[in-house]
Specification:
The protein is an alpha/beta fold and 491 residues long. 41% of the residues lie in helices and 19% in strands. It folds into two domains: 2-209 and 415-427, Aldehyde Dehydrogenase, Chain A, domain 1, CATH 3.40.605.10; 213-397, Aldehyde Dehydrogenase, Chain A, domain 2 (3-Layer(aba) Sandwich). The strands form five sheets. Strands 11-14-15-9-8-16-17 form a seven-stranded mixed β-sheet, sandwiched between helices. Strands 5-4-3-6-7-19 form a six-stranded mixed β-sheet, sandwiched between helices.
């Protein structure tokens, strides 16, 4: 059954898939205000944040797919095969994985689900989505819009389906159905449970889990730029971003000025609604604990969660803390909300040693007036994505992929690599019969000839190095003695 589904997906021509992307983009652009409103109702996201953080990245990804997908997925002849190119041609084609499940998340309900769905469908896969129970309105609307675009562009029946947006549906999806690939975005704990569920069937997956990232403010950084960008990363989406900075590692030379500029922003912050009361309570308790350990709120206050319009205590004021001990729980960053610790560091090595303690990294930001300095240590950051002199906004570039490793998951979404991850490569070789090399009747002459050819082709025609005598042989034979004469047994 799985093979039949994969074949059916391949029969959806790439031209029709691109036509679907165009129709979907135009519908979304024309009705963006509806989606922004639904996102606001689902997760209390301000309209401009929904527009910039959800709608714009998805539309940009659509445009990118329209221009690039067909070329990237087209058959490609593999060249530079050396001696194997004389009689053989090699071709790389890409086939869809088959039936892909997407378990959606809520913090960027349109961007994350939309791009994952877009790339899986453009690659030719059949897709089943489990919408988030925390963002049902916006994600169901997005799926209906995708199906409306499909009805106008020859999308095969059953190419895109979805489950109810309930927790129960998520629990039964992987148990009751067999998929060729699963895409999940969410917490590390749930991601580990999904990996365990998929392991017995060896079903592949993309697990985009959380990060607990750092912002490096080097000794030559612009304190105003760094404070502005980092605080924007803290406040955006009420800190509920897997790539948001959890700690700022600030060089002593610019620490005082950075604190001064960050404090003015923290003092002007207003409470933001988090996804639920538990998330707000956890952040508040971490803030109290940090103060008890000597940390200082840059706003001068630590406010408890306040009520939203429905009376739920889930609104929290974004906060930044200085003088927090390096071993404090808040410095670890195991929270999902608008809290930041600022740690003074002696130098870059000191900052890297603190960053090395973090086992979840996705996007690390670096602030410096000399961007070339990043070349010397970017590999040590362990992040797939490094932003220089900014935090979150550059990551919406449609060609930029997002990939975790270790406790931040595995696999990649977005960009070229994200599209390729929704396919499997097929390598086809074609041999010219007249030039085919046979191993059936190899004579010593053929063997010697092939050896000479290999030496010429791969060694540049160089002659073999002379064999040196063994140390024992050279010691036992006098340098100027004549060659020994062979004698018969009778002699």
């Amino acid at each position: 059954m799985r093979e039949v589904q994969a074949i059916k997906a391949e029969n959806w021509p790439i031209s029709d898939r691109i036509a679907w992307v165009v129709a979907f983009r135009r519908l979304l652009a024309g009705r963006q205000s509806e989606l922004v409103d639904l996102i606001g109702r689902d997760v209390d996201k301000p309209p401009f944040e929904a527009l910039m953080g959800d709608v714009l990245p998805l539309l940009s990804a659509c445009k990118w797919a329209e221009k690039r997908a067909a070329g990237l997925l087209a058959p490609r002849r593999l060249r530079h095969g050396g001696v194997f190119s004389l009689a053989n041609r090699a071709l790389l084609t890409r086939a869809p994985l088959g039936h892909v499940a997407i378990i959606a998340t809520w913090n960027y309900p349109a961007q994350l689900l939309g791009i994952e769905m877009l790339q899986a469908l453009v690659a030719g896969n059949r897709v089943t989505v489990k919408p988030s129970e925390n963002a049902p309105g916006s994600q169901l609307w997005l799926l209906e819009l995708a199906k409306e675009a499909g009805a106008a562009t020859n999308m095969p029946a059953g190419q895109l389906t979805w489950t109810p947006p309930t927790r129960e549906a998520g629990a039964t999806l992987l148990r009751d159905q067999r998929f060729d690939h699963v895409v999940f975005t969410g917490s590390t704990g749930v991601g580990m449970a999904i990996a365990e569920t998929l392991a017995p069937s060896l079903t592949s997956s993309t697990l985009e889990l959380s990060g607990r990232d750092s912002a490096f403010v080097l000794d030559d950084a612009d304190p105003e730029l760094a404070a502005s960008a980092i605080w924007q990363g803290v406040e955006m989406n009420a800190g509920q971003t897997c790539m948001a900075p959890r700690r700022a590692l600030v060089d002593d030379k610019v620490y005082t000025e950075f604190i001064r500029r960050l404090a003015s922003r923290a003092g002007a912050a207003r409470p933001r609604p988090l996804i639920n009361e538990a998330a707000a309570r956890q952040c508040f308790e971490l803030a109290l604990q940090c103060r008890q350990q000597g940390g200082r709120s840059l706003a001068g206050v630590i406010e408890p969660p306040s009520a939203d319009r429905n009376g739920r205590l889930r609104c929290l004021r974004p906060m930044a803390f200085a003088d927090c001990p390096r071993d404090a729980a808040l410095v670890e960053g195991r929270h999902f909300g608008p809290l930041l610790t600022v740690i003074p560091v002696r130098n870059l090595e000191d900052a890297l040693s603190l960053h090395d303690r973090v086992d979840q990294v996705l996007t690390t930001s670096v602030f410096t007036r000399s961007p070339g300095r990043v070349d010397a240590f970017r590999h040590r950051l362990r992040s797939t994505l490094v932003t220089v002199n900014d935090c979150l906004l550059p990551t919406i570039h449609p060609s930029v992929g997002l990939a975790g490793h270790g406790m931040s998951g595995w696999g990649i979404t977005k960009g070229e690599e994200g599209l390729f991850a929704m396919t499997r490569p097929i390598y086809t070789t074609q041999t010219a019969p007249l030039l085919r090399f046979s191993m059936e009747a190899v004579t010593p002459a053929i063997e010697r000839g092939m050896s000479r050819f290999i030496r010429f082709w791969y060694g540049g025609g160089s002659a073999p190095a002379p064999r040196s005598a063994s140390p024992a042989a050279s010691q036992s034979q006098p340098r100027n003695s004549p060659e020994p004469v062979a004698t018969s047994v009778a002699d």
